[in-house]
Write a structure and sequence with these properties.
Radius of gyration: 59 Å
Structural class: mainly alpha
Order of helices and strands: HHHH
Oligomer: single chain
Number of strands: 0
Length: 150
């Protein structure tokens, strides 16, 4: 029936026709939308499961990254400590080489010092006689007159 025939039959029936037509259209749209709503609900549940799994994985990644940061910091400290130890080893090796050179140089001095000690020991034995001769020479060649020296 057309709108004009319904309007001619009853003026009050026209809004009922519009309402029925809207309900038919609503029903047709609902047939399309309801499966989509159900799909959206199922997908929303799946999304919730996936998002919770994602949150769990992100938490695991965060923990791993924190542990990695700690390990990197520890590694950097150990590398710095190893560098310091290597520098100390090189310094000690240089000091050892210098000490060996000094000891080698002093070995030649040992011979000279040994000779000097032997020479001074023999001179010490003759010290009393040398002092007596020196005293005689001082008294003879000193400021005293010849009368006094005799």
């Amino acid at each position: 029936m057309t709108e004009a025939r319904i309007k001619a039959a009853s003026q009050d029936l026209l809004p009922v026709r519009i309402w029925v037509k809207a309900m038919i259209k609503y029903h047709a749209v609902l047939k399309i939308v309801d499966p989509m709503r159900e799909t959206a609900r199922v997908m929303g549940e799946k999304l919730g499961v996936v998002m919770s799994a994602l949150a769990e994985k992100q938490k695991t990644v965060r923990e791993i990254n924190e542990e990695l940061d700690i390990l990197n910091a520890t590694g950097a400290k150990l590398v710095a400590q190893a560098k310091q130890l290597n520098d100390d080893i090189e310094d000690c090796q240089k000091k050892l080489v210098r000490a060996e050179k000094m000891i080698g140089g002093l070995e030649g001095e040992k011979v000279r010092w040994t000779e000097t000690v032997a020479n001074l020991t023999s001179q010490q034995e003759m010290l009393i006689g040398d002092c007596l001769i020196a005293a005689g020479m001082v008294s003879y060649a000193g400021p005293f007159t010849s009368l006094y020296r005799e």
